[in-house]
Fold this protein.
Amino acid sequence: MVAIIEEMAKKIEAEKDYLTQLDNEIGDGDHGINMARGFAAVEKKLPSLRDGDIGSLLKGVGMQLVSTVGGASGPLYGTAFMKAGMACKGLTELDGPAFVKAMEAAVDGIKMRGKATEGEKTMLDALCPALKAMQDDVAAGKSLKEALTDAAAAAEKGVEYTKTIIATKGRASYLGERSVGHQDPGATSAFYLLQVLAEMA
Amino acid sequence: MVGVVLVSHSQKAAEGAAELALMMAPDAPVKAAGGLEDGSLGTSFEKISAAVEAADQGDGVALIMDMGSAVMTAEMVAESMDDRKISLLDCPFIEGAVIAALETAGGTPLSGMQEKVESGRDRKL
Ligand SMILES: Nc1ncnc2c1ncn2[C@@H]1O[C@H](COP(=O)(O)OP(=O)(O)OP(=O)(O)O)[C@@H](O)[C@H]1O
Ligand SMILES: [Mg+2]
């Protein structure tokens, strides 16, 4: 799991400028900068987290994101990692069902923190379809790798879907109709994180 | 007195709002928590936590936020300090700051703050 988090940090750093550019179009132009700052701080913190169980690792990652991101994605991803950590308390390995539970807790945490649902042009438009795909695959007895690969594909579709809708939550919602035609930066970063999960599983 | 913490993405906006609030209630425990550690735009969990500690005189702390992550981060600070009495107020930032400072100086308890700052929503004169 530590290696996955490191890979996530690399991916976010690599996509920093692109995420910021997306946020320039319909936000305040800081999503990539915020996420890269947060994940760089997470990377620094990893040595002190690597010996614990997956639950405490994810919780530590979440707390670090809350402390360092500086934008809405901080409390949102922070809550997601912290809730996922609570769902994985004491575990040193994750099978399909455990992964689904962690992901459910993460998505519920984001919904609670941002008071948003699917269809509002946020990261939830990538994460909710991803969770659904994962739930279906695990219920059908598919491998974790397959489930995460389908989840990432569903998230990518979700990112495309955000181009077609009006934002009703977050900074982009202040643009109303003018937000249509642009893809949501947070949904895009959520897709990247899931892509890393799928590749590393 | 109830402490008042002003949470904004901008250090200048938070400090400016505090300045306006203290103009009428100079003794009120009003603290600004604006921007990130380095002064750039954003909201800081640490800055908000420190401001809550500084503003708390034992009667609880009211938080007034601008928008978005300011609200969500303030919420997380409140959850992390569950040994303190903390309320998040829903009101216009500047008007709410001025009203809250006056009310705390006048002895309004934390439980009465939301009702008082409501008037900031529809009154400019
Ligand atoms: N209420 C919300 N619920 C779910 N996701 C949200 C919400 N608000 C914003 N987001 C997500 O966060 C992304 C923006 O993240 P970013 O780091 O740029 O924060 P921001 O909007 O600049 O924060 P701030 O509130 O400080 O202005 C959006 O693209 C969206 O996916
Ligand atoms: Mg932004």
Observations:
- The radius of gyration of chain A is 16 Å.
- Residues A 23, 27-28, 30-31, 34, 71-73, 76, 110, 114, 116, 122-124, 169-171, 184-187; B 9, 43, 68-69 surround adenosine-5'-triphosphate (ligand 1) (CB under 6 Å).
- Residues 53 and 68 of chain A are 23 Å apart (CA to CA).
- The mean pLDDT of chain A is 98.
